[in-house]
Amino acid sequence: MRNNLKKQVLKKLELVGDLSGFNVTLLPDFFLDHIIKFKDFNGAIEEISRIYHQGGGNLPIENQMLISGGNAANTALALAKLGVRAHLIAKTSELGMTIIKKFLEKNGVDTSRVKTDGELSTTVALEFGGRNVMLSYAASLSNFSFDELGGEDLDLIASSDVVCVTNWVLNKRGTELAEKVFSFAKENDVRTFLDMGDPSSRKEDLPELVKKVLSRRVLDVLSLNENELKWVSNSIGIKQQNIQKILEELQNTIYPRIDVHTKDFSISNGIEISCFKAEKRISTGAGDAWNAGNILGDLLGLKDDERLLLANATAACYISDPSNHPTLEKLRELLTKK
Fold it and tell me: In the chain, what are the domain boundaries?
């Protein structure tokens, strides 16, 4: 069955021509990510504790990297590499714009709507064998409101096929931004997509998000990982433990289609598709790559199982080679493997 599904998706991808006719606008976050990798959590904590208690010092590590980050920026980059016309709206500093030009603009992302009168958002991501702890300074993202958007920004959104709002959790005005952007988008027949981020630090604000965004017909697609699914469901009183049952009950409670991705499988509309086995060289940003594949599947009008397989393939390619988001040709190569 899995091989047949891969063949179906591969056949449809082989028929795909120029994807630059699709326009996706993403906002509002760009980060500079500093990723530090440890082999295991306990060993890292022991070493950090040892250095702290000796009065300070240096901890040599084997692997770290600086990359462009932020859910909107990462997803825009992944979409651009696939051939979709991706547009980023964000607010950063002059230094941030220099980094954006190096990582995003040269790879095809339209960055003409990025403002440079703000402050650079930064994250230190500590990775422990596939799990990450992110220490984020939101900077200009922390109060990014609908009022930040000018006439050209709104024209861009209105002319898009999809508008995606991300990183609600680090934006204190995230509910207002999502509500107003999505309401405006629906007035212009634009499909809407939300990736909220880990809401554990803002659980008290979830009921307002549910009321003003998730329960209204302004949002078409809500993308969640396993942790985010549990926080959203708990906020409205769903006490199930099984992911499938949680999702079924939540889907009957809120309006948008819910797409869930975990390390083992993804699920949407009752369809569950297992993930590809891939060497994991990075975990930070995997969800953004998955979202890009999922959005592309929507744009191409794929069936649920085909769309989820495409999203899983996009994420698998990324985690095995984080220096390069996959092209459409790279996805085709993965789908031809047994």
Answer: 2-31+69-123+138-336
Give dist(CA 208, CA 34) in Å, integer: 32
What distance in Å separates the CA atoms of residue 259 and residue 156, rounded to the nearest whole number? 26
Residue 293 scores a pLDDT above 90: yes
CA distance readout (Å), 244 to 146, 223, 234, 265, 291: 35, 15, 15, 11, 20
What would the pLDDT profile of 24-50 be if each residue is shown by its tens digit? Answer: 999 999 999 998 988 889 988 998 999
Spacing of C-alpha 134 from chain mean position: 14
Q: Global pTM?
A: 0.92
Contact 312, 272 (CB under 8 A): no
User: What's the token pair of residue 45?
Assistant: 């904590």
* Residue 160 confidence (pLDDT) above 80: yes
- The amino acid that residue 156 corresponds to is L
Question: Is residue 225 within 8 Å of 263, Cβ to Cβ?
Answer: no
3-state helix vs strand vs coil in the chain, percent to 5: 45, 20, 30
Q: How far apart are CA 133 and CA 284, in angstroms?
A: 9
Written as one string, the DSSP assignment of 193-251 is EEE---GGGGGGGHHHHIIIIITSTT-SEEEEEHHHHHHHHHHTT----SHHHHHHHHH
Pick the CATH number of 2-31+69-123+138-336 from 3.30.559.10, 3.40.1190.20, 1.10.760.10, 3.40.50.1000: 3.40.1190.20
